[in-house]
Structures are given as C-alpha cells and as structure tokens.
Specification:
By secondary structure, the protein is mostly helical. Helix content is about 85%, strand content about 0%. The chain is built from four helices and no strands. The chain starts with a helix and ends with a helix. About 0% of the residues are buried. The mean pLDDT is about 85. Keywords: Coiled coil, Membrane, Transmembrane, Transmembrane helix.
Length: about 140
C-alpha cells in the first residue's frame, strides 16, 4: 500500500514536457475532437432532414389515402345510382313494349278512361269515393 501512495504523489508532481512533439500531439487531439463535434453536428442535421422528409411523406400518404377513400365512396354512390337508373330504364323499356301491344292499350284505356268493350257495363262503387275522401281528410 505504501507504493501506491508514493506513485500517486509522484504523478501529481510530474510536470508535462512542452516540446514540439507534445504540442503536435495536443493539436492532433484538438483536431480530432473538433472533427468529432463537426461529425456529430452533420449527423444531427442529416437526421433532422430525414425526420422532416419522413413526416412530409407520411402526411402526403395520409392525405392521398383520405382522397382515395372519398373517391371510392363517391364511386360506390354513383354505382348505386347507376343501378337504380338501369332498373328504371328496364321498367320503361318494358312499358314501351307493352304500349306497342294493342290489347294492353285497350285494357289501359278501359281502366283509366272508363271505356267499355261491346256489351260491357261499367259500374262505379260509391265506397271508393268515400274512402278517397276519408284518406284525403286524414292526410290534411
């Protein structure tokens, strides 16, 4: 134990040599330290740029996905409307086909305009008129 105390006491009393070699080593160490600081700064700036680019890309992807979702919803609504219009068109085509049939036209005219065939008698029932008046009164 006595040796350790002597060595520590001896090292604290040692003065550093100030020659050209020692100064060049100190300058080299300072350059290396400055290089490490500059490297750290460059890496920090590069990391920030990468982070900003990542955030920008993320926001762009999110906005585009929202736009795509809106367009998909509009497309679905348009397809539903198209399907409804196609059904209506099919019904109208069927009605056109029926209107080209003379028997159908005759039946429609008898029903709508109370026309009769030869030998037919048309009766109107008073209950229907009373029911129509009651329904009209209920709606008001």
């Amino acid at each position: 134990m006595g040796l350790k105390k002597d060595k520590s006491a001896a090292t604290s009393e040692v003065t550093s040599i100030r020659n050209d070699y020692v100064r060049s080593v100190e300058r080299q160490e300072k350059r290396q330290q400055a290089h490490k600081v500059r490297l750290f700064r460059r890496l920090t700036v590069f990391g920030l740029l990468v982070l900003m680019a990542s955030v920008w890309i993320g926001i762009t992807v999110y906005n585009q996905s929202q736009t795509i979702a809106e367009k998909e919803q509009a497309r679905a609504e348009s397809l539903a409307a198209l399907e409804q219009v196609e059904k209506e068109q099919a019904q109208l085509q069927e009605q056109i086909m029926l209107l080209n049939d003379e028997e159908y036209i005759a039946k429609l005219a008898r029903k709508e305009y109370f026309l009769s065939d030869e030998g037919e008698i048309i009766f109107t029932l008073p209950k229907e008129e009373g029911e129509n008046k009651e329904k009209a009164a209920e709606k008001e």
